[in-house]
Structures are given as C-alpha cells and as structure tokens.
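Predict both folds.
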Amino acid sequence: MGGLRKLTASFVASGPCGVAIRDRLKHLTAEDERVLQAVGAHQGALASRDLKVRCVDGLEHGADTWAARKRELTGVSSSRIAGAITKATHDQWALARRCQAAHIQKLAAGIRTLRHRLSLPLGEKGTKREAGGYRSMNEWFRKSRRLAALEDRHTAAVADWQAGRVRVVRGGKRLLNTRHHLTEAGLTEGQWRERWEAERWFLAADGESGKRFGNETIRVTPDGEVSIKLPVPLAHLANARHGRYVLTARIGFAHRGAEWADRIEANRAVAYRIHLDTERGRWYLTASWQRPAVQTIPLAAACARGVIGVDTNADHFAAYRLDQHGNPVGDPHRFGYDLSGTAGHRDAQIRHALTRLINWAVRVGVAAIGIEDLDFTPEKTREKHGRRNRFRQLISGMPTGKLKARLVSMAAAHGLSVVAVDPAYTSLWGAQHWQKPLTTPRRKMSRHDAAGVAIGRRALGHPVRRRTAPPPHDRSDRAGHRTAQARPGDRGREGTRPPATDRPSGGPSPSGKRKREPSASNTVRDAPSTHQWVQDSLMCTG
C-alpha cells in the first residue's frame, strides 16, 4: 500500500436517543409574563449561585457536597426545582471540562507543528502530510514568538485542568463581550440588558415517570393547559391550588404531538423548558424526552437494497445511487445550501437540503445513506495551513458535527440507516476511476459526483476501483477474463497495483507462480544496443 494509511471499517451510525419539540405560548396576559419573568429571575439567581459553588469545589466534588447544595436550594425553591438546578449545573461544568480538554489538545497540536516547521531549513517544501519550512527569516522569527505564546497558554491551561478550574459564563461569553461593542451590534444598553437577563433565567423542569402527566413542576395537560409550581418565596402569585400558577395560553404540538400525548397520558417522564425570544418578543415551551436505545441493524441488512453515497461539500451534497452490487444507477443528484448568514439561517439550509436528500432516498427505495465520517478538528489550525485562509475558512464553515447528528435523527424518522465510512482518498479515487467512465454527452460528472460513487461503494464493502474490460482476442490469453476487481477481504484492494517491473526478472510473481524467462530475439531491431556488430571480410565479394 506504500504511504496509504489503513482504512477504518464502515459502520451503521446509532440512532437518536432523544426527542425535542417546541410550540409558542400565545395570548399570554401581562400578568402571565410578569409571573414568568419573576420565576425565571429567582431560579436563575439560584442557578448562578449553585454554579459558583460547584466551580469552587472543582475536583473535590462528591455525593456529600451535591446533597448539601441541594438541601440549601430546597429551602428557597422546592426539592424538584433544586434537583433540576443541580443537575443543570453538573452538565454545564462537565461541558466546560470537555471544552477545556479540547482546547489543550488544540494547543498541543499547534505547538508540535510550529516546532517541526521551525526545525526545518528556510524555504524547504512540505508534503501532503506535513508542512514545510518557513519562507523567510522574518516569518521564522514571528512564528518563534507565537510558539512561546502557545506554550504559555498551554502551561496555564494544563494547570487549570489539573486543579479542576473551569471558567463558565451563564448567559454566554459572546453576549457578554457584546456589551463592549453595542454600536457594532446595533443594540442599546437597555436591549442588551434585556437579552442578558433573559439568557440567565432558569425556567426548566426534569420529567418524572409515574407522576401526573410526567412532570410535577411544569405540567402540561392533554388539552394544552400549562401550569407552573411556584417556588416558596413566590407562592403568593399563585392563582390555583397547591401553589400553582395556570397560564392563559394553550399548547398544541403540531410536530410529534401524538407521540407526546401518548407519553403524558401514560404518565411517562417529559422535561419542559420555557424561554423568551427577546428579538421577537415571543415565549416558547420546549418538551423533550428520551427514547430507549435501539440496536442498530447489521451493515449487510442496511445495504441490502442499495445505498446512496453522499459527498459533503462547502455548498452542496453530491449524491449518487448505487445498487447492492455497487453499480451506479441513474444520474447524480445535487442538493445545494448556503452556509452564509446567521446560525439560524445556516441551520435551516442544512435541514432543507437533508429533507430533499431523504425524500429522494425514500422515493427510490433504498434503506441506507452512506456519508463520510468527517472530523476537521486537527485540520483547522493556522500553524498547519499558514496563509491558506480560504481553505481554513472552508473547512471551518462545514458543520460536520451538527450535520451528522441531524442526518441521523431525520433519517431514523423515515426508517433509513446512516452508514459512516472512512473519508480517506474518496475524492481522489472517485475521480480516477469513475468520473470519466460515467461522463456522457448528456451527463456531466464532477469530481464530487464521482466521490459520491466511491463513498457508496465503500459503504457497501466494495473496493472503489471499478471493474475493467477483458482484453481483446488478439492479445495474450484469448479467452481469459482479466479484471481489476478484488475480493472484499483482499489486502491492498483499495490501492493501485505495483508495476511488473518492480519484480526481478524471472522471480516469483505475487501469485506464487514463477515468471517465464524471456526468449531470445530473432530480429536485428530487437537486439540489445550494446552488442558489437563486426563485418567478416571473407564474406565480402567483388
């Protein structure tokens, strides 16, 4: 295989384990909004205080400290609200730790790359796997300064990791920094303050199986009535028995409403969250619940009816349908999207493209979608790509993590499986083996379309290389059928075959049979050029 890396085996991605649906709380009165804001601010202050205590505990946290924090919160709220707050605090602290570990790994990767490039002579060219030396002494000096800065950051980050220190901002770091750039953001101080306070509210409740309608704190009845269990200091705001406040709004989930109704009528756990969209001035309620883990079907069963190979690009999905034998069927399809603009616009574009892709898969009758298991985390560093800003922006703008999660969730709703394949060499080998053969006067094949074929074949367990035609009858063995097709278990089936000249003359071939010795030439033009031809004088006649 030479310098080719070992390919990982394809696998069927696990299905989604959770569901979340959302609906708007319409026709709220001024009193309803005042109560929601009071409850959110009160519980948000408790959540901020609990998060501070948890961060101070660091690695010393245990069951005893958790119980002590929960007891302290129970006196000013309720036991269920205290449990929801402490659980959210632990989730936020754990997320901060994971982000801290990823930051340390990114710094370490940048330091290794800088040290390698600084050790090379100036102007030395790089390879496809490693960057070369720097172009000038000025650039070398600036990168040496950056190496020192990264080493200082890495040392501080490792010290925080070992001490268990994390830095968390309730409300978001981006919104916090916006306070210093209100003019650029187009906000007034009052508008920013409203957003900041709304993001720091806490209006959420975990579900409880066996309780009425699956939740005691935020209860939603089958007819859409929403009521909230008020904390102890705000119990005087209740308008119903047992310290509850009933909203005038009614909920009716249009998406998965029947599934939600079945759960609450069976008193199964459903978690709720209420939040305010300050830009639109609208209140929303989100319901979520967990699904039992479902065993994924075998790879052979998922690909029994063929597969659709999808190549992910910066502005479109290039998809090609293949049958169960790995043969392309029909023409390539493209599903475009635009990843510019706000996060909401990008997310909507991805959903729309995936919806069209899934609808096409259902229409043609396949049961699986093959996609590359992309992860550009180690590829985004400026130390590796240097001045290639456009390439870094390209791979940074592709939402690979959200794409995989959303595709798996949307495909599972339609009974489709998602097969993740190794992304190595799919574009290169697809263009080499499939772009030209599939191009016709009426079908234009791009490199991305050919990569979709390569991805689909890899998902099916076939090699990317296509089968070649047998030789004509006037060459070599007349009736023999030569083919480049290799069995799935053969080693090196994805690579190119080494030329026969690499083996010594007369030596054994890879199949174990001995190669026939070359026969002597009978013609003058085939003789070696090093032979000395001498004319015999006796053969000359006058």
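Second protein follows, with its predicted structure tokens after the sequence.
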Amino acid sequence: MENNAELIAQCEAKAKQWLSPSFDEKTRQEVQDLLDNPDKTNLIEAFYRNLEFGTGGLRGIMGAGTNRMNMYIVGMATQGFANYLKKCYKDRKEISAVVCHDCRNNSRLFAETVANIFSANGIKAYIFDDLRPTPECSYAIRYLKAQAGVNLTASHNPREYNGYKAYWEDGAQVIAPHDKGIIDEVNKVTIDDVKFTPNPELIQIIGEDIDEPYLRQIRTISIDPEVIRRQHDLKIVYTPLHGAGRVMIPRSLAYWGFDNVHCVPEQMIKDGNFPTVDRPNPEFAEALTLGLRDAKALDADILMASDPDADRVGMACKNDKGEWVLINGNQTCMIFLWYIIANRKATGKLKPTDFIVKTIVTTELIKKIADKQGVEMRDCYTGFKWIAREILLSEGKQQYIGGGEESYGFLAEDFVRDKDAVSACSLLAEICAYAKDKGKTLYDILMDIYKEYGFSKEFTINVERPGKSGAEEIQNMMTNFRANPPKELGGSRVVLWKDYKTLQATDAEGNTTALNMPETSNVLQWFCDDDTKVSVRPSGTEPKIKFYIEVKGTMTDASQYEQLDREGAAKVEAIKKSLGL
C-alpha cells in the first residue's frame, strides 16, 4: 500500500479521536498499538474511510477503527438510523424496530447494542432471544408492523467479518431515498451523540411467538402437498454451516412432512469461527465436504446447505452415473422458477397477473422459460432489495410467485422481502420429491430443462483486491473497460453494450437506447452474437470485482451435457483471456 504522508496524517488524526474516554479501554489500546506501529498499513486500513452502505448494508472486518465493524461503528450507525426514523415517523405515537443476528462472533453484542440504542431514543426494540435466519427478521418486521429492522450478519463472508443490514417497514433492505437519508444522518453523528444507555421498558424479547407463525406461513407455499405425502421418507442431508439455519430449517422440513432429514452433526453447532470450513459459503464445494460425506454414506436423495444467516441455499444431487455433483446458483434458481411455473400451471393456480423476477446477472434461460410459459419476467439489479422493490411496486395488482439470483438466493413468497433459505430448502425438498415421484432425480429435471430451453453454462470469477489500493485498482479496471469496451469475447462478436452507470445500451451500429432502471449502478454488460453474456460489477459488500460469464449451446439429449459443459468451460477460458483475467 502507498503510505503517503498526507494519508498517514489523516488516519492518525482520526485514530487519536478514538483514544478519548468515550471508547472502552480495550479499543483504546488497540488503536494505540496501531499508532505506535512503525508500519502504518494496518492503521490506514482501519481509518482511511468510514464503512458505507453497499448492496448489502454495512459490512467489514471486525476490529477498532472507522473502517472496521465494532460496537462504536454499530452505535453511530444505529444512532443515525434512530434519528432518521424519528424524522420520518415524527407523527407516530410509537416507532418500533426488530433486531436480529446470526452466529458470528460479536453478533449478539452488536444486536444488544442496537436494541439498547433504539430504546434509549424512545424506539421500541423487538430483539430475538437468539440467532435467527435473515428472512425471519424481514418477516417479523411485517408481522409486528414495525417501522424498521436491523440484522447483524455478514452472510457468507469469512469469519473475520461482521455486518449490519438496515430494513424498512415493508421488510426489505433500505433503498433510495431512505438509504441515502440514513447515511446522511449517520454521517452527522459523533461518538458522543450515541445514547448507549438502554430503556429496558422499550426492549421486548421475541422468539417462538414469531417462529410459529413464520413456519406456518412458509407451509402455505407448498404447491403439491400430495407429492410430499407420497415421498415423505425422501432422504435429505442438511447442514447449516454452524449458522442460523439450524434453528428453523429442520423444523420447516418436518412441518412440510419430510421425516427422513439428517443434519450434519459437526455443523449443527453454533460457532462464529466456522471450525469445519475455510469459508462458510455454500457456493464453494469445500463447504459441502462434510455434507457430501454424510450424503454418500446414507445414499441420500439430496444435500442442502444454508449460509450462516440462512438466506441462501446450495445443493448437490446425484447425476445419471450416481456421482454427487454440485448444482450452481443459476441452475438452482432456474429449477425453482421452472417448477413453480410448471406446477402452478398443472394445478390450475397460475394466473395471468403472476410475475417472476431475476437479477440482470442471472441466467437468461429463465427469460426463455417465462416467455414460453406466458409469464411476465422482470430484471433488476443485484441484491434482494431490488426484487423486494418489484414486489412492493405491484402489491395489490399482480402476484409475485418467485424470484432469485445466481448467488444462491431465492424467495418463493411475498410475506418475506429478503432471500429465504428456510422456504427455499422446503420447496427444494418438494421439487426433489416431485422428481422422485416421477422416477427421476433433480439432475434429470435439470437435463429436461436444458433439452427444452437450450444449454447454458455460467461461471463467476471473483477477483479479490483488498484494502485501499485494491479499491483503487477495481475502480481503474471499470474505468478502463468503459474507455476500451471489448469488441469480441472468446471469439464471439460483441453486438450490444449496456452501461448501467449511464443507463445506456449501445448496439454494434452505434445506436443507443435508454435502460429503464430505478437508479444508476456501476455495472457493465456485453452481449455477443451467439448469446454469450458477460457482466462485470464491483461487489457492494466485499473487496472484489465480479465477472459473470454465460455461454450457450443446443442440447437434444442428456448424454450431450458433459461434452457441452466441457465446451462451455473452454469458451469461458477464452473469454477470460479476452478480458485479461
């Protein structure tokens, strides 16, 4: 990192403010150590900026500093949030907020800090008695008719991280204008403004009184309960990866009627250090190692894994050779939406006003399915707050029946406004039961979809660039791509460029059209003449830039899948080369 004198001086000045009696002794000592260290790299990392809300709220490495997750940053964020709520709801007799947390280190401390500060500001705080899934936080806001919510979680990030998700009264994460309004208020707050001393009369512990109605509501999204009755002994292996799914997902599966669920014992233990995995992310095969061990030993029908805050689900099933294979997020989302549309149609539940949503970086095969079945499909930005926005916009006029994204998030219901692994695992088990009832596997269902709608291979590349220098490098990459857009990708001619920062699409002839999106976003997309699609965006929650590649093929028989997969992988490599990756 470039240790220029001006930056060091700025960081030292900010750090010295953290030596005041407003901060506890442990924090002051940690900051003093940073100041005393001749190598200023860690000091700069901790103080060169303030944590900001991204697509998933506030997220960072735990420790002392303005660019770190700690009770003071949480405190100032909450004070600013409280100030904004009081401004927005000044005519309400009572303002209330739900506080939820996952299994991460310090999550309970941060959650109690949030509840204390809300109560000290005259805002009633409903705080869960223990860890709960992210979607249950969203559900509780709506169920209790609260005006806001905060969830303390860093989702699937490595163990050093924690985070803070802010929710609005519709149960969705905040979007404009409230996100910017909250940030403006947070930026005005100093540590001395934070009211840390709670008003116990305004803090209410919640738990089973929310769990039961939540599970009951999730049960209503089952499309074909008869299939579950016939296949109730479907062999399911489930792992929560030490997180919040352990509280609700086994209960939900039992509630739906599945009575042969095996939970991976080592990973049913709540632990923010995630001792059995390097990263608690169901996207990575390594995280499913113990689950696959048990799935093979039990000859299971399906393996499901939820991430630490139980809003995303990863899965594995057996292929036509009986080998266990991972099903990626695009494939999972596609299977969900195919099943929902096909079976709502078969049972007479599909209506002309029904609609589905996907994010712009998710597979275009979903659009093909929707078009062929006569169902409206909407594209939105990455982040479930945008899917929630589409539900809100059509509330009372059209029915949302499902939506998801390539990063393993899916929402099958509208009474929650964030991705939901509790309902997703339950519905996934039903789809598996449906397949088994027809003498098929989930893999067979995937092959059937490819045969009808065409083959697609998706690949996500995460280029990690931590710290201040990394953030600058990512910014430079995006600037360069805008200045020098690719004319070909892996041998395929680019025929359409979309820039969501300018909200313009440009074709090969130079014609431009406006992109209809709610706001600008730092995303670029390139479409080729053979339906190849490449999207690039800096992550809003992690120090990385993400490339999403989708290549197509024609598949008439399941026996062609492996060959098409190999050809797709080769095409992905050629595209990476074109992009200099």
